[in-house]
Design a protein that fits this description.
Blueprint: H1 18-84, H2 88-107, E1 110-114, E2 119-123, E3 128-132, E4 141-148, E5 151-156, E6 165-173, E7 176-184, H3 187-192, E8 196-201
Antiparallel strand pairs: 1-2, 1-8, 2-3, 3-4, 4-5, 5-6, 6-7, 7-8
């Protein structure tokens, strides 16, 4: 009779504790989270640095543009100022014209009689007056004048020809003056002034 072989009972395998598994899983998760956070930090830092550099570059560019604009404006202003400054020759001409203007203004003051007869011209610092002789003489012409070199501009205060300008070139000949017509739309004045005028007296 065969011997019965006794089966040796195998030892039960020890099961790994579920606690260890959970601990390992938690550590892995923490590592992954830390890695993600570090990665996110570097991404944000890199983006911030890039944007910051762009802003700084933009500010620098704007500052340079403003600086260039100011420099250009200053240079342009200096150039204009230099160009507007009269040269020595031009300054001499200006002074000569001023002297001529002052001499003419002083010389024309007084009362003058038309050599063709029929009118008197009185001029002072404030203005001029044309009087016409005869009972049927026209009303006087009263106005102001300005002198620029040897050019006199007459302007009537009242009718006829109120506010109408008349330009005449003045010529001196001993005790006489003459007015050469340049332009005048006032018919009465244009018909009277362009002649020789004899000096009668001067007013201080």
């Amino acid at each position: 009779m065969a011997k019965k072989i006794k089966k040796t009972a195998s030892k039960p395998k020890k099961k790994r504790s579920s606690g260890k598994r959970k601990s390992n899983s938690l550590i892995n998760r923490v590592i992954v989270i830390i890695f993600v956070l570090i990665l996110a930090f570097f991404l944000v830092f890199s983006l911030y640095k890039h944007v910051g550099n762009r802003v700084v570059e933009k500010q620098v560019t704007q500052t340079e543009i403003k600086s260039d604009a100011k420099t250009e404006a200053k240079t342009e202003a200096k150039t204009k100022a230099k160009a507007s400054e009269p040269t020595a020759k031009e300054e001499k001409k200006i002074q000569q014209k001023k002297s001529e203007t002052a001499a003419v203004q002083k010389s024309i003051q007084g009362t003058w009689q038309s050599t063709t007869g029929g009118a008197f011209l009185t001029m002072d610092k404030n203005g001029y007056r044309l009087d016409f002789m005869g009972v049927d003489g026209d009303a006087p012409i009263i106005g102001t004048y300005t002198v620029d070199g040897d050019i006199i501009t007459f302007i009537n205060k009242e009718d006829p020809c109120k506010n109408v300008k008349g330009l005449y070139e003045v010529k001196f000949n001993k005790n006489e003056i003459g007015f050469k017509l340049k332009s005048d739309d006032c018919t009465k004045r244009k018909a009277t002034l362009p002649t020789e005028w004899e000096w009668l007296n001067t007013e201080e």
